[in-house]
Design brief:
There is one protein chain. With 598 residues, the chain is α/β, with parallel strands linked by helices. It contains 13 helices and 32 strands. The strands form 6 sheets. Strands 1, 2, 3, 4, 8, 9, 10 and 11 form an 8-stranded mixed sheet that branches. A hairpin with a 4-residue loop joins strand 30 (532-539) and strand 31. The longest helix has 44 residues, at 2-45. The radius of gyration is 36 Å and the shape is elongated. It starts with a helix and ends with a helix. Residues 1-7 and 115-129 have low confidence and may be disordered.
Amino acid sequence: MQTENAYQPRHRTHRKQWYRWGIISFFLALIITFGVILLIFADRANQEQSNPYPEAVQTDGQGTLYPLIVNGDISTQHDVLVDNEEFFVPYELFLEHIDDTVSYDEASETFIFTANNEVVTLQSMYLTNELKDEQVTLNFPVRNIDGQSYIPFSPFEQVYPVEFKYYDESQIVELNTFNTPKMKAEVSIPADHQEDELPTTFIRTEPTYQAPYVTDIQHGTPVEMLEERENWYQVKSNEGWIGYIPKDEVTINGAEVEEWTKPERTYAPWNPIAGKINLTWEHVVSRNPDTDNIEPMNGVNVVSPTWFHLKDGTGGLKNLADKQYVSWAHGNGYQVWGLVTNDFNPDMTHELLSSYENRKNMINQLIYYSELYNLDGINVDFENVYLKDKENLVQFMRELTPYLHEMGLVVSIDVTIKSDSEMWSLFLDREKLAGIVDYMMVMTYDEHWGSSPVAGSVASLPWVERGLQGVLEEVPNEKLVLGVPFYTRIWAEEETADGSTNVSSRAFSMNGVNDWIEENNVQLTVDQSSGQYYGEYYDDEEQIRYRVWLEDEYSMAQRIELVHKYDLAGVASWRRGFEETQIWDVIQKGLEQRLNEQ
């Protein structure tokens, strides 16, 4: 009994050991199975695609708000407005990432910053020294959306070493900083795989295989490496996607620096096509035109948009300039002469012109705007000015012109023909002004203005020629540019009960008046006294007689003849958008034909 009792415990001990090993093996098998299941589910997660970016938001006619990437991260505080290829950035973003010294007054929509050699360096050292360390108030067109002010960035492209990049595929905007190292890399095939086994890899939202992927990417594709996290790299693709790729699928190529230097302007001597200036004014009221909708303007070599408007007597300017418009114009071979106007306000104009400090304030702004927007010239259009400011206007042009000439810009001024009107003609000292500026545009319109008591032509040919002759008594012909109208007035004459005639008019574009003529079956005849086609018809129902002196190809051809007859510097048309397309060919051929005959 003792022997059996001694043996039995040893037998039970072996059985217990095998039992324990069995349990351990079971759990090991269970763990392996569970791991395989996890891998299967992880593999399924690999197939889920997720867009990590917020959706772009369409605004009410002001553009689209896009999410913003800053330093590899999605900004939770800022977005960027994009409209017509222009970036508009929130003021807070400007302070946080571009320049925290800039002050912005939302009420007046103006920037205020101190100019210095490190922030704003003008092309000319002379100008830089003159304006250095002065506080200059600049105004830019601002978009306001839901109480947020968005500021156009294009004027600052030549000032700060940053840029905004839009990615069409990912629908996102990136704030890119120059002069900082960026780690370049490319997607590569893992060492334990063949290319046909794994032709692409996934960029994932998080550094784990279980995270959904943002996009797939071909091997050999360049990416930018942003940061390292354990066995993963955060990268940015060329399409703007940001996410994570396993380290063994990324080859680092080294750091590169995108250098930024202040763009230098090159100034070429003004050499008009065909030897004559062919300028057209662009009327900008609140927003610039969509340049995609502007038809070709054959022969035009200068566009002059009405961008800068006097807004107070101290010389403050409302600014409507658009960098994209300048790029479009230069791309089509047009010079850009920004127009500055006094908004026909004689009181503000007097306060401006009678003070050296106020004149200097406006001049400083025009210098900065000319540089920021890469302008080729400035066109001054001051009208409705007190006679007492005659000498002050001359002094203003004396002070402005040397600065603009130092920058290589063309300086021009608009004048009327001679008349006895103090505030529209007599305030202009044409002879002195001609000695200062490069060109003088003589606006040979309106002979019969909108509220004229009698109906008549906007600019009959004899009236234009007489006015031109009067200006030529004081202005050299090589500086004088003939201003021509693209609009026509349709006059309505209505007899009143007392036998008098009530006269009114409406201005029409060339296409508009052609439609009116066709709708009313108006017969046209050549009016020798005006040098234009004339038409009229009587409306029996309204008992109103309508009259029109037409601005068209016929009248324009005769105006171009005056340019050659007096050997003027060229022609300037008011305004683009009022023309019929073929009028550009009439002007171009008229200018070139006479030159070819010489």
